[in-house]
Specification:
Helices cover 20% and strands 40% of the residues. With 299 residues, it is of the alpha+beta class.
Length: 299
């Protein structure tokens, strides 16, 4: 059951239905109207998903890497600007993991062993120099416009390069970023004598819905990239929303993907987190947290 831990880690690091009509595939577009960057960003703002809550009662999750693949079931609750909760189960309905994100905390439950991991978002920055925020995770999962640089705490006024493609409007930026000591360890010998990385970010916007279709970041000096891909738009509870979200990480020839497929979504229904923690089983040590994830989800 290796998938539950990867859901948590992959989303954190890149740092989630009443009527189900046929999916609208994003086909090759032609004669896309010209538009200015300012007007495009305004259209994106005006077409952002309006919701107070999102309840994905039924989800299929699949994970794939060079060693194999796995599939699980899940449900997802989001109360806007309040909390995100995911419950992951095995195919027979056996509880595997529960995750609760709030504005100031991250809580993870190993359901089988009844162990709990609790931390704030600064915890991951202290350990990995990775800045994660609730707002960023919420934007990624709800198909809102987001910028990886902003998510990493590097937000600043920037001007994108705007291009028209056959699939829509592409906003891109190239930035040089200093590499911290902790991140250098990730590259090992390949980047031993380099202190900076050149990062290319691309944000592809659908020309009809003005929502992100793909957001990617690529290290131009090394063969490494991370992306979030949004599938075909479909109507759930009379709102247009992607039928699936695919997270992809590529490091050289090693590729990892995590797909969330939404089968049923209800919007604007009353939601509250159902998440209990036994204080005497709370774990704060990251090494123990990794052990729990590995034992429960990789066994």
């Amino acid at each position: 059951m290796r998938l539950g831990g990867h859901i948590f880690l992959l989303i954190i690091v890149v740092v989630s239905i009443v009527s189900c009509r046929s999916a609208k595939q994003i086909a090759v577009k032609k004669n896309i109207p010209s538009i200015t960057e300012g007007r495009l960003l305004k259209n994106i703002e005006n077409n952002e998903l309006e919701y107070s809550t999102l309840f994905a009662k039924k989800m299929d999750i699949s994970y794939k890497d060079g060693k194999g693949s796995n599939s699980l079931k899940a449900s997802l609750k989001i109360k806007r600007d309040s909390f995100i909760q995911a419950n992951v189960t095995a195919p027979l309905g056996i509880g595997v993991a529960r995750i609760l994100l709030t504005k100031d905390s991250i809580k993870f439950v190993d359901t089988y062993h009844k162990k709990f991991f609790v931390a704030d978002y600064d915890y991951f920055y202290d350990k990995f120099d990775v800045r994660v925020s609730f707002d960023c995770v919420e934007k990624i999962i709800t198909n809102a416009f987001f910028d990886f640089q902003d998510c990493a705490g590097l937000g600043k006024e920037k001007k994108y390069k705007l291009d028209k493609t056959e699939l829509g409007y592409e906003l891109s930026t190239v930035e040089e970023r200093a590499i911290s000591r902790k991140i250098k360890k990730f590259y090992k010998k390949k980047r031993k004598n380099k202190d900076f990385m050149l990062v290319l970010q691309r944000i592809l916007i659908d020309p009809e819905y003005f929502r992100p279709v793909k957001v990617s970041v690529e290290d131009l000096d090394e063969d490494m990239s991370v992306s979030v891909n949004y599938g075909a738009f479909k109507q759930f509870s009379e709102k247009n929303f992607p039928e699936k979200i695919v997270f992809q990480l590529a490091v050289g020839n090693n590729k990892t993907s995590l797909e969330l497929k939404f089968l049923k979504i209800d919007f604007d229904v009353p939601l509250e987190p159902n998440f209990k923690i036994s204080k005497n089983r709370i774990i704060h040590d990251l090494q123990v947290f990794r052990y729990i994830v590995s034992f429960v989800f990789f066994a």
